[in-house]
Write a structure and sequence with these properties.
Mean pLDDT: 79
Number of domains: 3
Oligomer: single chain
Number of strands: 29
Radius of gyration: 28 Å
Strand content: 25-35%
C-alpha cells in the first residue's frame, strides 16, 4: 500500500469521507436551524400584524359620524384608519413595509360579528340587525403565509366595544352575567407585556394600556374596567403632552375638568370646567419661536387652558375656583400642590431654567381626558407611590401585589382629611399608618441573586390617584363601611413606567446602577449608550458587594412624557420638580 507522509491512502479516503459527512450533517443542522428561526420569526410577524390591525380597529373616532372611520365601519375586511381615502392596513396581501423585505408574503383578513345585550346576556347576531349600532363587535383576525410549500395561519379573536376613544360612558353594569369572550387579545406577541390586569374586587378588574403617540408627541393612557366574565364596564382615555408656551393676553378659557361624585349611581364621573376670564398662553412654533398659527392642537389647548383663575373670579355660588390657602382645592389644576405655592389662587409657571415667570416663554405639561366626545384639560396626574420589581416575580405574585395596591388605596380614603398629597408613604413625619410594603410583598427576594452573564428585567410600576373632593371621599367611605366594592370606584391607575425615565443623568435621576461596570442597566435604544431595553439588567463582572439599581421619575404630568427634557429646579420648593425614587438590590453569586 502506498504511503503519503506516513498515512495510508485508505486512511486518507476514510478521513475525507468522515469530514464530508460531518460537513453535510452540519449543513443539514444549520439549514434546519435557519428554517426553525425563520418559522419563529414569521409567526411573531404574523402575531404583530394581527395585533396592529386589532389596535387599528379599536381606534375608531365616533360611534356614528361622517368621519373617515367610525364604529359602524368595522365590518368584514373593512374599517380602520385611512390615508388619502385608503385603509392604512387593508385586507389582502400585506405591504412588505409592515414586515421587512426578507419576509414572505402575508395575507390579512378579518370577520366581524355584532353583539347585543339582551336580558343581561351578550348575544351575537348577523350584521344586518338593528338598532343602528351593536354594543360590541367580535372580530376574528386571520394572518396567513406560505412557508416551505405549506400555508401557515394564525387566528386572533377580540372584542371592540361601543366605547369611542373620544367619549366615556358606562356600557354595562354588573348584574346577571352571561358567558362572552374577553375584550382583549387571546394571545399576545410578547409574553412580557407590561400591562397587567388588576383585580379590583369580586366583580371587576382594571387593565391600563400605555402607548406613545410619536406624531402628537404625547402619551396615551387607556384604562378599561371589565368584569370577570369579560364584559366591558368602563373605558377612560387620557393624553399627556409636554409643551413650549408663551404668555399671551388674558382671555375667556376653561377651568380644570375634574371628577364629580354621583350619589345616586355611587360613581365618579368626569365633569367639564367653566369658561371664565383668566391668564392664558399660546403654543410656540418650534422653528420660529413665535406663537403657532395652528389652532386646536394639543399644545395650543394645553398652553391656553392650564392656568388657575385669580381669587376674584368666582362661580355662580360666589366661590373661588382655586384657593388652597383656605382649603379650596376641588377645581385647581394641581390640587396636590403645597398651598404656599400659590399666588392669588394661581399656581406658578416656570421657564426651562426653573425660574418662576409670569410673562414670556414657559414650559407646560397637561393631562387631557375625553369627556362627552371632547378632549379637555383635566386635573394633573399625581403619583402616590413607585415600586421596582422583577417582571418574572410580578407575573407569579399578582395577588400580594394587588393586596398592597388595595391597602394603599384604602389608607388614602380613610385618611383623606390629612392626605391631599402632602403626606406620602415613606415620609418620616407622616402620622398615617401606611401598609408595610415589605410585609405584603414578602415573597419579593432582596437582594435578588444573579450570576455572571445573567439578565433580569425590572418593572417600574407607578400607582397614580386622582384628586377626590369631600363628597367623593364621603361616598367611598360609606361604601367601605358597608363592605361594598369601593376599590373599583376609586379613581386610580396602575401604570408601567419603565420607558419614561432616561439613562442615568448627572443628577442621578432616571435608570441608574450603583456600579455600572458590574451591573449595567438600560433605558431604551433611543436614550441609552448601551442599547439595553428600559429596565433590563446585564451582569458584566463578579462582585462580592451588594449592588443597587435605582429608578427616578417626576411625580406629575411631565413624568409621563417619555424622556422629558430635564430642567434645573434646584432650590425651588414646589411640586413641579418633585422626583420619586425606587430602588432594587441584587447580589452576584460567585463562580
Amino acid at each position: 500500500m502506498s504511503k503519503i507522509d506516513g498515512l495510508g491512502l485508505l486512511e486518507i479516503l476514510i478521513a475525507l469521507t468522515v469530514i464530508s459527512l460531518g460537513i453535510a450533517m452540519h449543513s443539514a443542522l444549520f439549514t434546519q436551524f435557519q428554517l426553525h428561526h425563520a418559522s419563529t420569526r414569521n409567526q411573531r410577524l404574523a402575531w404583530r400584524l394581527a395585533e396592529q390591525k386589532f389596535d387599528d380597529l379599536k381606534d375608531f373616532r365616533q360611534l356614528q359620524s361622517t368621519a373617515d372611520f367610525d364604529f359602524n365601519d368595522i365590518q368584514n375586511n373593512s374599517g380602520g384608519k385611512q390615508i388619502k381615502g385608503s385603509l392604512l392596513l387593508p385586507a389582502g396581501p400585506v405591504e412588505q413595509r409592515w414586515t421587512g423585505s426578507l419576509s414572505p408574503q402575508f395575507n390579512l383578513s378579518w370577520q366581524v360579528e355584532n353583539g347585543y345585550w339582551q336580558n343581561s346576556q351578550l348575544i351575537y347576531q348577523d350584521q344586518t340587525k338593528q338598532p343602528p349600532y351593536p354594543d360590541q363587535k367580535r372580530v376574528s383576525i386571520q394572518v396567513s403565509w406560505f412557508e416551505r410549500d405549506e400555508i401557515k395561519q394564525i387566528n386572533v379573536q377580540g372584542i371592540v366595544a361601543a366605547l369611542s376613544p373620544l367619549s366615556e360612558i358606562l356600557l354595562y353594569r354588573p348584574q346577571a352575567t352571561g358567558v362572552t369572550h374577553k375584550p382583549i387579545l387571546q394571545q399576545q406577541t410578547d409574553s412580557a407585556s407590561p400591562d397587567i390586569p388588576i383585580a379590583l374586587d369580586d366583580l371587576s378588574k382594571l387593565i391600563t394600556e400605555v402607548k406613545s403617540l410619536d406624531q402628537e408627541k404625547a402619551t396615551q393612557i387607556r384604562a378599561v374596567t371589565v368584569d370577570h366574565q369579560g364584559h366591558v364596564l368602563k373605558q377612560s382615555d387620557f393624553l399627556t403632552v409636554s409643551c413650549q408656551c408663551q404668555f399671551s393676553a388674558d382671555g375667556y378659557q376653561k377651568t380644570s375638568a375634574h371628577g364629580h361624585w354621583d350619589s345616586v349611581e355611587q360613581t365618579l364621573f368626569p365633569q367639564s370646567g367653566d369658561t371664565v376670564l383668566k391668564a392664558q398662553g399660546c403654543a410656540l412654533d418650534e422653528v420660529s419661536g413665535q406663537c403657532s398659527t395652528q389652532t386646536n392642537t394639543l399644545c395650543e389647548r394645553c398652553c391656553r387652558d392650564h392656568h388657575d383663575p385669580k381669587l376674584n373670579i368666582v362661580d355662580s355660588a360666589g366661590q373661588a375656583y382655586c384657593d388652597p390657602a383656605h382649603g379650596i382645592r376641588d377645581r385647581c389644576y394641581d390640587p396636590f400642590r403645597n398651598q404656599q405655592d400659590y399666588n392669588n389662587g394661581q399656581h406658578p409657571h416656570y421657564n426651562s431654567q426653573g425660574q418662576i415667570v409670569s410673562s414670556g416663554n414657559y414650559i407646560e405639561s397637561c393631562r387631557f381626558r375625553n369627556i362627552n366626545g371632547k378632549l379637555e384639560v383635566y386635573q394633573d396626574w399625581y403619583r402616590l407611590d413607585l415600586i421596582l420589581v422583577p417582571w418574572q416575580w410580578l407575573q407569579n405574585n399578582l395577588t400580594p401585589y394587588q393586596d398592597w395596591l388595595k391597602a394603599s388605596l384604602t389608607t388614602v380614603i380613610r385618611n383623606s382629611d390629612s392626605f391631599w398629597g402632602q403626606i406620602r408613604p415613606g415620609d418620616t413625619d407622616s402620622s398615617i399608618q401606611w401598609p408595610d410594603k415589605h410585609q405584603i410583598l414578602d415573597t419579593l427576594i432582596q437582594p435578588w441573586p444573579l450570576k455572571l452573564g445573567d439578565f433580569l428585567l425590572l418593572s417600574a410600576r407607578g400607582l397614580y390617584v386622582d384628586y377626590m373632593d369631600n363628597t367623593t371621599v364621603l361616598g367611598l367611605k360609606q361604601l367601605l363601611s358597608k363592605n361594598k366594592n369601593a376599590i373599583s370606584q376609586i379613581p386610580f391607575y396602575e401604570l408601567a413606567v419603565n420607558r419614561f425615565a432616561p439613562y442615568c443623568l448627572i443628577n442621578q435621576s432616571g435608570w441608574c446602577s450603583s456600579a455600572s461596570d458590574i451591573i449595567e442597566v438600560g433605558a431604551g435604544l433611543e436614550n441609552s449608550p448601551n442599547g439595553l431595553s428600559p429596565g433590563l439588567l446585564s451582569v458584566k463582572q463578579y462582585s462580592d458587594q451588594q449592588e443597587s439599581i435605582s429608578f427616578s421619575l417626576k411625580r406629575n404630568n411631565s413624568g409621563l412624557i417619555p424622556f422629558a427634557s430635564a430642567s434645573d429646579f434646584s432650590g425651588l420648593v414646589n411640586n413641579d420638580p418633585a422626583i420619586d425614587k425606587a430602588e432594587f438590590s441584587v447580589q452576584i453569586l460567585g463562580p
